[in-house]
Each structure stands twice: as structure tokens, then as C-alpha cells.
Amino acid sequence: MKTILKTERLLIAEADHNDADFIVQLLNSQTWLKFIGDKGVKTKKQALSYIDESLVGSYKKNGFGLYKLCLQSSLIPIGLCGFLQRDYLDHPDIGFALLPEFEGQGFMFEACHALMNHAESALKLECVSAIVLPTNGKSCRLLEKIGLQEIGTIKQNTGGQELLLFSNKKNPSTKS
Q1: pTM, to two decimals
Q2: How far apart are alpha carbons 130 and 112 in whole angstroms?
Q3: In the predicted model, what is the mean pLDDT of the chain?
Q4: Contact at 8 Å (CB) between 87 and 17?
């Protein structure tokens, strides 16, 4: 396990093939399906492909990605948090998801706060964005708590659902 950061209670590490069962569980959790969407990852084989293409692929291509969050005390994975480089945003955006049984305990704030500091100090990211469904109040509040502000709306693609756009800068540009 390649650890990126440690916080008071968490290890933030790159995901690998050992995480396939966890990825199946997280990507099929009620909150993932409701607020992120069905990625079609139902089997261990599909999870391995997701890890290779979406997670490890981003680490290699961008130098960052979504990282696994593990409890320091047990090394149990509880969520993902990190940065994505989307083709319709000029700047990386922070994304996160937590297994429902670990929500409401401050873990995601702890991870996001540490990763925002990492984005500035190690990754040298001047601007970080976030996209979120307007109905996801918990995520909106968390984004504000870590220093992002709502700056408008954006659609992922033509005919796509309108998302709230957050940023740590007042006037970031977006690709049209």
C-alpha cells in the first residue's frame, strides 16, 4: 500500500488490486448510486478494471487521483477521496465517497482538509473545483467547510444533468 498522507485517524493511500472487494462495496452503496451514479461495477473482475483504468490510470497520467481512505487503527478501507481531471473542467476537482456506516464521524472532512493542503503544497494545484448534485446538501456543506464556494452550474455533457460548480477561486475558467 503506497501511503500518500496520514491524518489523525486515516491513512490516505493509492488503491490497488487488493481493494477490489471494497470497490465493489463502495460503488454499490446507496449514497454512491444516488449521488454519483451506477458505474456498472458489480463483480471483482469489474472492480479490478475500474481500479486499473480509473484509479491507477489517473495516478500515472495526472500524478493524482482518488485515493483509498483507511482507518489507521485497522487498515480497513472506508472510502475514496482525491482529485479527478475531467475533460470539461480546466482544473482538477475534488471528489469523495464514504461507506454509509462511516458517515457523520468527520472522516471525510479530515481527508478532504488534508488533501486540499496536499494539493497546494505537493501537487502545486492553484485551483481546485468540485461538482455536486444540487440535492446533495451534505457534500455542499463539506465543500464550503474546506474552503470552496459555489460559483455556478455546469453540465457534464449535452443533455446531462445540471451540477453545482464549486471552486477555491472566485473566477476559474471552464472548458466549453
Answers
A1: 0.93
A2: 12
A3: 94
A4: no
